[in-house]
Amino acid sequence: MKTSTSLWLATAALGTLAAVGYGAWTAGMNAGMTMGTPQLAPTGTGAASASPQDPSTWTITQGFEATERHMREGLKAGDLDPVTGLSILNYHDPMVPGKNFDAPGKSPFMDMLLVPRYAGGKAADASGVTVSARTQQNLGLRTVEVTEGRLDSAVSVAGNVAWNERDQVLVSARSMGFIERLHVRATQDRVSAGAPLADIYVPSWVAAQEEYLAVARMAEQDPQLVSLRDAAAQRMRQAGMSPAQIQRVVRSGSLQPRFTLTAPLGGVVTELMVSEGTTVMPGMALLRLQGTGTVWAEGQVPESQAAQLQPGAEVSATSPAAPGQTFTGRLQALLPSVDPATRTIKARLELANPQGRLVPGMFVQMRFANPSAKNVLLVPSDAVIHTGQRSVVMLAEGDGRFSPVEVRAGREAGDQTEILQGVKLGQKVVRSGQFLIDSEASLNGFLARLTPAPEPASEKPAASQPMTHQTDAQVEAVDGDTVTLQHPAIPALKWPAMTMDFQLPPADQRPKDLSAGSAVHIEFEMRDGDVPQITRIEPAAKGAQR
Questions:
Q1: pTM (whole model) above 0.90
Q2: pLDDT of 463 over the 60 cut
Q3: b or e along 72-101 (b: 16 or more beta carbons within 10 Å of the residue's beta carbon)?
Q4: Residue (of 501, 157, 517, 110) closest to 342 by Cα position
């Protein structure tokens, strides 16, 4: 009994070991088969969401494969690629930059497929550049957010004070006479309203006054002569006497051959045309009085800001000659002329001058209010690059990537510029003084400075010459100035072996027997937006690899 039990236990142990061994062998075989056979990731959304691919790391061949997949799955620009998890921006030919297409397919320029470009990816925009953190520090790049607020568009200009020409009076003689006394002796004398200016003796008034006084005495005794008295008074008015002077004759009952000119307003004598003893004639100008209650201030307003100003707009002004005092007034007019040298328009303001503190020639700083201010998108003015044809900002997309974005700039005040179109609230733009560039060529130079330097090729060309490349090729067809070549891979350009078109050099620089099937050696350079340009073509050496 004991022996049979031991035999049964041994048999069970051998069976267990056999089962475990078979299971281990099966698992090992499956693992080996799994390791030896590459597993293809499914193209469904589940696989893409698990581990989306980064298209910025793709080679051109992988880009071709992605285009083939898009053609099979019916994807196009604007669709979401399930493998990358990114939206398809467009398709382009890597050999002909600047030409974009909305659908996948074959390049119209050469025998190869287009490559997809993705929105939001590191290689989304061919015009963008990637700048390392060290390069950003070396260049002094600073970024700021696009903010929203009220543009302080109050216009501030400097100007000079001038007399208000609408507040002046020319004092003239009303009758022939003689100046017996002048109460003002020189120009720039200040006078108050009603102050005496000159005493004038008028001989022609004596006869008219004597006639009136005689008729008036007779009219007191004979009421029928009242009409004659009124006619005599009318003749005094015709002689140039004012109603006040006539009343003085009537009240006093005596001759008044002299009269005193008084100032019709308070101000300054700006012109004095007579002296004591001068004979004056009717209508002759004696002196000019300038009022000082208000003055003009004329300043040069940039024509870009003149559109914000309207006649009647409120203005405040300060002057070093009156520290601590603010003068208020209104914009009287924008004069219809532009200074071609400074591109400014002269604005004429009327300022209150209650104490006569402001006089011509004084310097004033004027500020126009802008009550219609509203919230707008704002960026620092030095973040906007004006190329002459458009305005551009460098948009910071994160991870050290920057791309130029065209914007429509509005008003500018202080160090802020209003952005009407092109950016959104919260986006970051580059702010740096050295990027204030006013031409397209300068903008391209800026992008070139930001772009990392290319890896050195096998043959480094001269700095002043375009980058050229060399390869052996076989002629497939010749069509005028274009030749179709089949060439091997070109590592310097990361090109696979392909068949594509090239632009031929002038006819006197080509082999005479160039035709389909010819083996050639070419030197070419890339051209933006066009097929590569062959700069040198010659028959290939015998035995050269094609």
A1: no
A2: no
A3: eeebbbeeebbbbbbebbbbbbbbbeebeb
A4: 157
